[in-house]
Amino acid sequence: MVLLLFSIGLEFSLARMRNILRQVALGGALQVGLTTGITTLVAVGLGEPVGRAVFYGFAFALSSTAIVLRALAERRELDAPHGRFIVGTLIFQDLCVVPKVLGWVDASRSRDVFLLAILTLCIGTAWLTSLVGLSLALGAFLGGTVVADTEYSHRAMGDILPLRDAFVSIFFVSLGMLFDARVVADQPLLVGGLLLGFLVAKGGVATLAAMAMRFPSRVAWLAGVGLAQFGEFGFVLARLAEDNGVIDKAALRPLLAAGIVSMFLAPLLVRVAPHITAGERLLAPLERLIGVRSIDEADEGRRLENHVIIIGFGLAGLFAARTLAAAGTPFLVLELNADNVRKGKELGPPVYYGDATSEEALGHAHLSEARLVVLLMNDQPAAVRVVDMLRRVAPAVPVLM
What we know:
By secondary structure, this protein is mostly helical. It is built from 20 helices and 5 strands. It has a 5-stranded parallel beta sheet, sandwiched between helices. Helix 12 (188-212) packs antiparallel against helix 13. The chain starts with a helix and ends with a strand.
């Protein structure tokens, strides 16, 4: 797990960390606070002692950093709005529980020495953070972010990947060894209820936390799915609770069984969630409360024809909008990031919240009458889905990607 978090840190530089500080501080506090509080109240209501109820609260609040970050990295969604919220929340959860040296090592021209130095940095930062009460994984992740800002990040990644993949396999094998099928057979209703708690209740709380931060419904839906599982640090917390007499082994087994099942389901759910629109549709009525302009609120009286549709309002989208405005070309922008929509509202361009993979949103944007679609997204899997939808709705409209 430490090697996995270090390698993900190599892909997540300090500059990118600065971009998610808001998600770390606010999103993490909301998700952890709400989940812990609600779970504790429910446990007390069911007759559990206060100490055990608080343990259940924190156990439910923690999600799997290793599994979720790996899934997001594989799908290249770490920079997507929901990816930033998930990563920020995971870092906050872990908080609850050196370039000159590399230059000298690189001068030795020894691959073995360089690999040992990287492993020392990885394990060393993890150990140092553990001394001040933080998690091992957080230290490894921060160590990776330090190396990511140096010229040695690509070499470090290449050398560490084989070890990371091997230890990830061991991690999942260890989860399988911890799973006790007899508990499921003896207490199926309890294990099933706890599993629903992780997948539905915890995911719902995370979704509401994202909505409270004024994220659009699609981002909140994906964030809730991404955080709806047990965390590896839950096992550490469980051991501490058992050693201190807060909970006994018999009461702990159903929780661990349900948690392990939720961890195995997590990669599958993260993969299929973008293709399930029912969740975000249920959240659609809340969008007006977060203060974004939806595409269906655009002025329908102003019939758009021969216009340009820009998808994505980051820096490139802003430049494209300014250029089209200066040329007198009619256009509108579809954006899924609520912050960018609000920025567009302040700057003046017609920027609307809209999911470009939604046929309804594309209809409101008058895609069939458009002269061009300019696709400016840094989320490659989502961009592929957008192109597929554009081709199905209006195959004759050219797409500049």
